[in-house]
């Protein structure tokens, strides 16, 4: 059913700015403590786009060099279990986070795995190849077993949504809170749903009509364009775009004494940021990176129908159309934010399938 890997596999290799190819690479060897996974779907996000077009800060700072296999959002099926791995079997549907920790440094040992001194991020930081390939060898500790009822397309969107879950958790959002979410991309629309699941009253603020309509469908009580949003009106604000106008707007919308989370990563300096307001309004400010501790909680919300990740998927394209997928991502004209690549192994279907499952 899951098929056994041959000796080579197809992988999406970025070789330079706006240069990519589907390369034949060796299937990774299953290391102790790891599982070999046949990848089903890979989600593409702004981080991947910046690697594709060459604008990534990781490239600029020399933390990543072409050529490399891109991708860090994925779902798949275990095809081989390495020695010493407990709790996984061949055929298990899985997804996982991309942060690999050493578990030995002072930060890991004091429970701050996310800040591991020797951290690598699969497909992003360090030399670990990304996930846009037919097979990946993943540390078992990064994997999450999935219920068979969860479709693997939605599962490929868990990774970015865990960051949104982290933002909601950090702000301690709860029933009755007035929450504003800035941005209607994947992070924003996941944050809208997760915040809504607590019983909070959620307002989505964005510039895309389709994104705002989707936010309304997914539980936002109000949807506003930035110029319509009221200052000082929200106890908690989540900035989920990384775009300068939204970063500058976020502190204005928070009520005095309120909480603010920055989830989007700006690609450069933000001169318009009203730093003084953080002090004058006595705000509690959080920078939110990833969500490696949020997987179980998010999966419960998804399984119980409180968060619909399939609704965020605009289209699913075959690996051979990766260039089209990246162009679609860069173009920004989509009714839903997430673009997936269907990989699925050699026997997998490679039909162009538009729309969410
Ligand atoms: Zn991502
Ligand atoms: Zn460590």
From TrEMBL:
Parts forming coiled coils: none
Domain Enoyl reductase (ER): 7-341
SMART domains documented for this protein: PKS_ER
Gene Ontology MF annotations: oxidoreductase activity; zinc ion binding
Keywords recorded for this protein, A-Z: Metal-binding, Oxidoreductase, Zinc
PROSITE patterns: ADH_ZINC
UniProt keyword annotation of Zinc present: yes
Cofactors that this protein relies on: Zn(2+)
Superkingdom: Bacteria
InterPro entries attached to this UniProt entry: ADH-like_C, ADH-like_N, ADH_Zn_CS, ER, GroES-like_sf, NAD(P)-bd_dom_sf, Zn_alcohol_dh
PANTHER family in the cross-refs: L-THREONINE 3-DEHYDROGENASE
Family of the protein in this entry: Belongs to the zinc-containing alcohol dehydrogenase family.
Record's protein name: 2-desacetyl-2-hydroxyethyl bacteriochlorophyllide A dehydrogenase
Organism: Pseudonocardia cypriaca
């Amino acid at each position: 059913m899951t098929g056994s890997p041959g000796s080579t596999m197809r992988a999406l290799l970025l070789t330079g700015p706006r240069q990519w190819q589907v390369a034949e690479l060796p299937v990774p060897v299953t290391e102790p403590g790891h599982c070999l996974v046949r990848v089903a779907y890979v989600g593409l996000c702004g981080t991947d786009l910046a690697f594709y077009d060459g604008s990534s800060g990781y490239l600029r700072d020399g933390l990543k060099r072409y050529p490399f296999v891109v991708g860090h959002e994925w779902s798949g099926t275990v095809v081989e279990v390495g020695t010493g791995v407990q709790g996984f079997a061949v055929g298990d549907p899985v997804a996982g986070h991309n942060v690999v920790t050493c578990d030995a440094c002072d930060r890991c040992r004091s429970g701050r795995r996310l800040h591991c001194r020797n951290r690598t991020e699969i497909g992003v930081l360090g030399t670990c190849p990304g996930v846009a390939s037919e097979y990946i060898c993943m540390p078992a500790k990064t994997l999450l077993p999935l219920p068979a009822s969860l479709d693997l397309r939605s599962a490929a969107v868990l990774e970015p949504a865990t960051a949104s879950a982290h933002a909601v958790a950090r702000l301690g959002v709860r029933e009755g809170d007035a929450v504003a979410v800035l941005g209607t991309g994947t992070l924003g629309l996941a944050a809208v749903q997760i915040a809504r699941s607590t019983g909070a009253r959620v307002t989505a603020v964005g510039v895309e009509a389709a994104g705002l309509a989707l936010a309304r469908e997914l539980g936002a009580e109000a949807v506003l364009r930035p110029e319509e949003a009221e200052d000082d009106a929200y106890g908690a604000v989540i900035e989920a775009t990384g775009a300068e106008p939204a970063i500058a707007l976020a502190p204005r919308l928070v009520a005095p004494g309120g909480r603010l989370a920055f989830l989007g990563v700006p690609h450069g300096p933000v001169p318009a940021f009203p730093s003084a307001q953080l002090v004058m309004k006595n705000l509690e400010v959080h920078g939110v990176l990833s969500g490696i501790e949020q997987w179980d909680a998010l999966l419960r919300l998804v399984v119980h129908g409180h968060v619909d990740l399939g609704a965020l998927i605009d289209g699913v394209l075959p690996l051979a159309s990766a260039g089209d997928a990246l162009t679609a991502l860069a173009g920004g004209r989509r009714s839903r934010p997430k673009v997936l690549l269907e990989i699925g192994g050699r026997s997998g279907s490679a039909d162009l399938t538009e729309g969410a499952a």
